[in-house]
TrEMBL record:
GO terms for biological process: 'de novo' pyrimidine nucleobase biosynthetic process; 'de novo' UMP biosynthetic process; amino acid metabolic process. This is Aspartate carbamoyltransferase. Pathway: Pyrimidine metabolism; UMP biosynthesis via de novo pathway; (S)-dihydroorotate from bicarbonate: step 2/3. Keywords: Pyrimidine biosynthesis, Transferase. It comes from Lysobacter antibioticus. Its EC number is 2.1.3.2. It catalyses: carbamoyl phosphate + L-aspartate = N-carbamoyl-L-aspartate + phosphate + H(+). It is an enzyme of class 2 (transferase). Residues 151-297 form the Aspartate/ornithine carbamoyltransferase Asp/Orn-binding domain. L-aspartate binds at K78, R164, R219. SUPFAM superfamilies: Aspartate/ornithine carbamoyltransferase. Catalyzes the condensation of carbamoyl phosphate and aspartate to form carbamoyl aspartate and inorganic phosphate, the committed step in the de novo pyrimidine nucleotide biosynthesis pathway. Heterododecamer (2C3:3R2) of six catalytic PyrB chains organized as two trimers (C3), and six regulatory PyrI chains organized as three dimers (R2).
Length: 301
């Protein structure tokens, strides 16, 4: 496809090809003129630090021109629609769009109306998908644990219900043959829409952590939450916050991941986030490499 909207239909071959290419980029093997003369735009209708800046750097490192659109300082504030915004930036000759939007399906809807030859990458839509986060998490896991996931156990903890990261990660983990996927959180934050098919689901955090090779923590997404889904942040931390003492239940060489931004002291303690088992900044570094691979695959040649 000329767009990357989700990982739901991505084959194992496609994911592995992108991860191999991203690993080469992570090792510094790339052509700085691969996207010479191509204009790409980061079209963000929701805030971002990591995704936006790493796409910007990825595009620049491949020689593309990068336009940065920020809804809060744009004519969106005068009522211009997302589609008109896209059409106008397309008219300037822009071929690639990296789009984040608060509504589920908004990026796919824009892609359906884009002109022939325009490529869209979903940089996060609502609760639905964040495919490049899924890819960078898989790259980080491969580097830490090897390419064969079949003998591994991973625990995903927290607010799965509101998380597009969780949905893309779970799709990629299944496609790449993860041995066991445990999902744990309060019942109010676990979806019942098929997202957790094939996962071992529990509300017992200690049982979820027992012997796992990787712990994927999720941000408590208070901006997408109705009132009352969690009783208090203190209670949430007590029941589902990852502390160093709790992490001891996982394998001794287990890695800890978090997509960022973190609620420090809520879903994860400083000691774990900044500790020796944390892959959190490695994930960020891999975000640049994965986004280079995606932009190259969609836009080169
Ligand atoms: N992980 C992630 O998507 O971070 P940002 O919202 O800062 O881009």
């Amino acid at each position: 496809s000329r767009h990357l909207l989700s990982l739901a239909d991505a084959s194992r071959e496609m994911l592995e090809a992108l991860l191999i290419r991203a690993q080469a980029f992570a090792e510094g093997h790339y052509d700085r003129r691969a996207l010479d003369g191509i204009a790409v735009c980061t079209l963000f209708f929701e805030p971002s630090t990591r995704t936006r800046l790493s796409f910007q750097l990825a595009a620049q490192q491949l020689g593309a021109h990068v336009l940065n659109f920020d809804a809060s300082t744009s004519s969106t504030s005068k009522g211009e629609t997302a589609l008109d915004t896209l059409k106008n930036i397309e008219a300037m000759g822009t071929r690639g769009f990296i789009v984040r939007h608060r509504e589920d399906g908004a990026v796919a809807a824009l892609a359906a109306q884009a002109r022939e030859g325009t490529c869209l990458v979903n940089a996060g839509d609502g609760r639905s998908a964040h495919p490049t986060q899924g890819l960078l998490d898989m790259l980080s896991l491969r580097q830490a644990k090897g390419r064969d996931f079949s003998g591994l156990r991973v625990a995903m903890i927290g607010d799965v219900k509101h998380s597009r990261v969780a949905r893309s990660d779970l799709q990629a983990l299944r496609t790449l043959g993860m041995g066991e996927i445990r999902v744990c959180g309060p019942a109010s934050l676990l979806p019942d829409d098929g997202t957790l098919d094939g996962c071992t689901v529990t509300q017992d955090f200690d049982a979820a952590l027992d012997g796992v090779d990787a712990v994927m923590m999720l941000r408590l997404q208070r901006e997408r939450m109705e009132e009352g889904l969690v009783s208090s942040l203190q209670d949430y931390h007590r029941d589902y916050g990852l502390s160093a003492a709790r992490l001891k239940r996982a394998a001794a060489d287990a890695v800890v991941m978090h997509p960022g931004p973190m609620n420090r002291g809520v879903e994860i303690t400083d000691e774990v986030a900044d500790g020796p088992q944390s892959l959190i900044l490695t994930q960020v570094a891999n975000g640049v490499a994965v986004r280079m691979a995606v932009l190259e695959a969609l836009l080169k040649g």
